[in-house]
Design goal:
Largest sheet: 8 strands, mixed
Shape: rod-shaped
CATH class of the largest domain: Alpha Beta
Radius of gyration: 31 Å
Order of helices and strands: HHHEEHEHHEHEEEHEHEHEHEEH
CATH architecture of the largest domain: 3-Layer(aba) Sandwich
Structural class: alpha/beta
Length: about 325
C-alpha cells in the first residue's frame, strides 16, 4: 500500500467541501488533478469513498469510517511539522550543558539568565562537573556540549576556543597588594598562597616558570573547592590567584581582586562537543549566544573590590 499525504489531503478537502470544484479551489489544484488523487486513494484502499451524482457528493459508509482516521493522520503530521518549525525557530527546546564548578558558579547562570530573556521557552539544564567528568558527559552524549578550560582530548571530542580568562590575585581588602596599582608575580609570591587542586597548581606553576625560573609557587594551603579558597583568603590564610570569572564571588566574601603581571597568566576556555554530532537548533543558538556573551568579559572591572552586580549590569 502506498498512500500519500496528497491523497489524504485531497480526500479530506472533498469531504469537508462536499464538492470537487470547491475542494480543488481550496487546494489550488485542477478538478481533474484532484479527482485523480481521490481515485488513486480509493484504488489503494480497495473501496469507494464517495457517492457521486450530478447534484451532490457524499461519503460512502467506508468513506465516513475512514474520514476521522485520515483527519487524525493529517493533524498529527501538521503538529509534527509545526513542532519542527518551532525548534528551527528556537521557539522551544531543551539544552543540557556540563560545566566546571568555577564557570557553573558565575558565567553560566549569568549567560542563562540573559539568554532566557530572548528565548523564554528554551529549557537549559546545567550539570556542574569536574573537568574530567564534564568531558566524559560529552563523550557519552549525556550533554550537548561542555564549557571548561582547555585540556588534552580524545579523538571523539572536538574543542573550540571560547574566550581567555585572565588570572588575578584575590586578597583581603586591607592587604598590602591592594593599592590601586598593578603588581608583579615576584611581589605576589612573597606572600602565602592558597591554591586549588594539584593539576590547577601545577599548570599555574608551569606558566610562571616559563616566564622566569625564579618564580616559584609554594602553596601554604591547597584546597579542593573555590569557595574554600575564598574563605581561607578572607580569614588571612593566604592570597589566591584565580581566573577573572571568579571575580563576581569576591564581593560576597568581602575581598578584593588585583591585577598581576610579569607575566600575564590566563586560561583558554573552550566548548567541548562530541565529534560528528549536530547540535539541535536550541543548543546551537545558545552556543552562538555564549560566544557573544563572553566577548564582553573584557569589560569587567580590572582591580579593587568588585561591585556585587558587576556581572549582571
Amino acid at each position: 500500500m502506498n498512500i500519500t499525504i496528497k491523497q489524504l489531503r485531497a480526500f479530506a478537502a472533498v469531504a469537508d467541501a462536499g464538492s470537487f470544484t470547491e475542494a480543488a479551489t481550496r487546494l489550488y489544484l485542477t478538478q481533474s488533478g484532484l479527482s485523480l488523487l481521490v481515485k488513486e486513494l480509493e484504488g489503494e484502499l480497495g473501496v469507494r469513498l464517495f457517492d457521486r451524482s450530478t447534484r451532490r457528493i457524499s461519503l460512502t459508509v467506508a468513506g465516513a469510517d475512514f474520514y476521522p482516521l485520515a483527519l487524525r493522520v493529517l493533524q498529527d503530521l501538521d503538529s509534527a511539522v509545526n513542532s519542527a518549525l518551532q525548534l528551527q525557530d528556537v521557539q522551544r527546546g531543551a539544552i543540557r550543558i556540563a560545566c566546571t564548578p568555577l564557570y557553573s558558579a558565575g558565567l553560566m547562570p549569568a549567560a542563562m539568565d540573559a539568554y532566557k530573556r530572548e528565548f523564554p521557552a528554551i529549557h537549559i539544564k546545567l550539570l556542574d562537573s569536574l573537568n574530567e567528568v564534564a568531558l566524559q558527559r560529552v563523550a557519552s552524549d549525556e550533554v550537548d556540549f561542555s564549557v571548561a578550560p582547555t585540556r588534552p582530548i580524545s579523538q571523539n571530542i572536538v574543542q573550540q576556543p571560547l574566550f581567555r580568562d585572565r588570572f588575578r590575585l584575590i586578597c583581603p581588602v586591607n592587604h598590602p597588594l591592594v593599592s590601586g596599582r598593578r603588581v608583579s608575580w615576584k611581589e605576589a609570591l612573597q606572600f602565602p598562597f592558597v591554591t586549588l587542586p594539584t593539576d590547577y597548581t601545577r599548570q599555574l606553576q608551569a606558566d610562571l616558570a616559563a616566564h622566569s625560573p625564579s618564580l616559584i609557587l609554594r602553596p601554604a594551603q591547597q584546597v579542593a573547592f573555590l569557595t574554600t579558597a575564598l574563605g581561607m583568603v578572607k580569614f588571612g590564610h593566604g592570597i589566591a590567584a584565580l581566573p577573572s570569572s571568579a571575580i563576581h564571588m569576591v564581593a560576597f566574601f568581602g575581598l578584593a581582586a588585583v591585577d598581576v603581571e610579569a607575566p600575564v597568566v590566563d586560561r583558554q576556555i573552550c566548548f567541548f562537543q562530541r565529534r560528528g554530532k549536530t547540535l539541535s537548533p536550541a543548543a546551537e543558538s545558545f552556543r552562538e549566544f555564549l560566544i557573544r556573551f563572553t566577548s564582553d568579559l573584557s569589560s569587567l572591572p580590572e582591580s579593587g573590590t568588585v561591585p556585587r552586580d558587576a556581572w549582571f549590569s
